[in-house]
Amino acid sequence: MTLRHFLSFSDLSGSEVRTIIQRAIELKRQTRAGVAHDYLLRGKTLGMIFEKSSTRTRVSFEVGMLQLGGHALFLSPRDTQLGRGEPIEDTARVLSRMVDAVMIRTYEHEKIERFAQHATVPVINGLTDHEHPAQLLADLQTYTEQRGDIGGRRVAWIGDGNNMCNSYILAARQLGFTLAAACPEGYDPDPGIVKAAGDALELLRDPAAATRDADLVVTDVWASMGQEDEKSARRQAFTGFLVDSELMALARPDALFMHCLPAHREEEVTTEVLEGPQSVVWEEAENRLHAQKALVEFLLTGD
Ligand code: CP
Ligand code: NVA
């Protein structure tokens, strides 16, 4: 089997993503019906390196591996040699000889790429400053379950041109939807990703223009992990980028609202929208579990 990594959303083709989503939907249905999947990855292990905090990513990968009959190891720099300066390349070579796959959440994207270059097992991006592709699988599963295939739809991204936004742009290109991203000046997504997106991306400054006729409205925190010092400057720059019911009213009547969570109520989104009938954020969070089970199965078994 060829070694496959999932460092960027662009590491999967559109048809592979659709296959993984359908499998995730199937695994979810079966899990809810009490069907056990503990024979699928029996005895397989996933090493999980977390250099940033996490609730959903950690729990979903760990529980997912357990449900598939495998095991996940939580590795933090605080109590591994990574925190004492052991090179990432050495860690990649050592872990590859002991575990079947590695998930990494870190700051610089370049670090996960260097890890993957030296790994002989699949490496999964559990969030870097540049991308959050595992979250995209859950978002796309959620959209598909609620409204059918996302191809041809209009998705509004409101706020920071951050890791989530970059992965959304790549997903738009891979799956054939339009991403209308409204970002304040100075907070645009990655220029290389923007350039490659072609007409899959409309890069705007006005949240209303992006949201008009959207099928899905998505936002995220204004200050991501590692940007804590920029909080007050960002609060100023993002004035007018709050997703509230007035903004949601510009979207299509059946539009959904998503947020990868954790959310800051009354900052990037009102409680009314987050807890309202168009919000699918809890389903979206749960789908991290199902989508990642399907992803790990795909990377480890090729189906
Ligand atoms: N959405 C997400 O990745 O959440 P965590 O930071 O809790 O893992
Ligand atoms: N953009 C956010 C996503 C958190 C899941 C961050 O990087 O902190």
From TrEMBL:
One Pfam family here: OTCace
Localization per Swiss-Prot or TrEMBL: Cytoplasm
Gene3D superfamilies per UniProt: Aspartate/ornithine carbamoyltransferase
Residues reported to bind carbamoyl phosphate: 54-57, 81, 105, 132-135, 260-261, 288
GO molecular function: amino acid binding; ornithine carbamoyltransferase activity
EC assignment: 2.1.3.3
Stretches assigned to the Aspartate/ornithine carbamoyltransferase carbamoyl-P binding domain: 4-145
Binding sites annotated in the UniProt record for L-ornithine: 163, 220, 224-225
Enzyme superclass (EC): transferase
Pathway recorded for this protein: Amino-acid biosynthesis; L-arginine biosynthesis; L-arginine from L-ornithine and carbamoyl phosphate: step 1/3
Entry superkingdom: Bacteria
Keyword field contains Transferase: yes
Biological processes annotated in GO: citrulline biosynthetic process; L-arginine biosynthetic process via ornithine
Cellular component, GO annotation: cytoplasm
Location of the Aspartate/ornithine carbamoyltransferase Asp/Orn-binding domain: 152-298
Family indicated by similarity: Belongs to the aspartate/ornithine carbamoyltransferase superfamily. OTCase family.
Protein name: Ornithine carbamoyltransferase
Natural source organism: Thioalkalivibrio paradoxus ARh 1
